[in-house]
Amino acid sequence: MNQLELLAPAGDMEKLQMAVAYGADAVYLAGTSFGMRSFAGNFTPEELPKAVALAHEHGVRVHATVNTMPRNEEVAQLPAYLEQLQDAGVDALILADLGAFTLAGKYAPRCERHISTQQSIANYVCAQSWFDLGAKRVVLAREMTFDQIEAMSAAVGDEIELESFIHGAACMSYSGRCMLSSFLTGRSANRGACSQPCRLTYDLTDGRGRTYIAGKHLLSVRDLNLSAHIGELLDAGVTSFKIEGRLKDVGYIKNIVAYYRREVDA
Fold this sequence. Notes:
The protein has ten helices and eleven strands.
């Protein structure tokens, strides 16, 4: 069985320090490019090696997000960026694009490759295919049930690690693939710049101007909280428990990581 891991968000150096201090086994963060949270503090090329060193001093692994979908004019920047992440000592890369995944194997071969939830991995054939290509771990589609996770785990065995989100904001769209922000504000959710319009209140009206619901959060799903289901996830084969929240404040990181540390240990 793979070792259990509590994986915490680290939007900047202060949040990383808090996650480490309150019990994270690993943190996930981003450099200045190709990450899905461009409005988090993130880490400059000068800060990143210091962040990794701090985490490693406490036995905490570092996963870096490279999970946007690069466009043609951006791909040429990836090799140098991937080498930079590897040179900083990052343990794993979280990838969503097949091209970025392939380049990571060439330019950052010492880093594990994990497949982002935005690949919507929901069946064992897909998980096995990524493993065959060189992936060490898949981050499960958020839409999966416990039974579906268990069936996948039984089919792939311990060869590939399974990671699941357990707490935090949950996008209303399938595996986070949303165009609403892009249409309304010009800020693409798929390029790390979501303006979160689904969090606003809306009115439900018809073509005749009649209002049926007014001022309600019609598009916003409740935040995820699987703290009561850690045992079920363990039984289903999940070994990495991921907390969402690189945009959350320091107090949130401290309290949520400490809470889930107790729950996972129990």
